[in-house]
């Protein structure tokens, strides 16, 4: 099987850093919160188990911002802990997690923000198993053509919520919508998703030399 290398990854239309984080990384914002504790419905946990059973995946996304702006790009995931999001050209934005740290970078401005993975909500999404039993689930709706799970995380994004939309038959993730504290929505639709792909380790390499040289500068 051919490995996807970092040189094969298209580089990211321009979006603000906040929109990038909310529209891509914030889908991972599922860390435990002081909401009333209740057991997640079994259907929701089945969906989470299915999603976490997929060890590698890649695909494309289209993001719709709160002002109607539209961007797109590609994403790559490898469990546990690895992720990469790139916007289409000419945007220089990217998000990379190598299993230990997460970096948000702007290659045009040569700026990098580095965070420990275990201090970000990405760590939950990229875990070997996603457990919905602990204080995260605000609502679950099951319809004939859609299963919707609403999650909240005040420690990361205040009183924002994350609405995840799954196909009830295949359990595949279709879309997520982030509603921020000002009730503004950012939605991301994913498509052309491939599961079980072999990804070259270079896809998830963080350019630590650039990150550290920025700090020295």
Explain this structure to me?
- This protein is 17% helix and 36% strand.
- By secondary structure, it is of the alpha+beta class.
- It has a single domain, classed as Lipoprotein localisation LolA/LolB/LppX (outer membrane lipoprotein receptor (LolB), chain A).
- An eleven-stranded antiparallel sheet has the order 6-5-4-3-2-1-11-10-9-8-7, with helices on both faces.
Key descriptive features of the protein:
alpha+beta, outer membrane lipoprotein receptor (LolB), chain A, eleven-stranded antiparallel β-sheet, 5 helices
Indicate the radius of gyration in whole angstroms.
17 Å
Strand order of the largest sheet: 6-5-4-3-2-1-11-10-9-8-7
Roughly how much helix do the residues carry, as a percent range? Answer: 10-25%
CATH class: Mainly Beta
> From the helix content, strand content and strand pairing, which structural class follows?
alpha+beta
Q: Average pLDDT value?
A: 77
Low-confidence stretches: 10-23, 25-39
Give the CA-CA distance, first to last residue. Answer: 42 Å
Please summarize the sheet with the most strands: 11 strands, antiparallel
Strand content: 35-45%
Give me the CATH superfamily: Lipoprotein localisation LolA/LolB/LppX
Total domain count:
1
Please identify, by name, the CATH architecture: Clam
User: Number of DSSP strands?
Assistant: 11
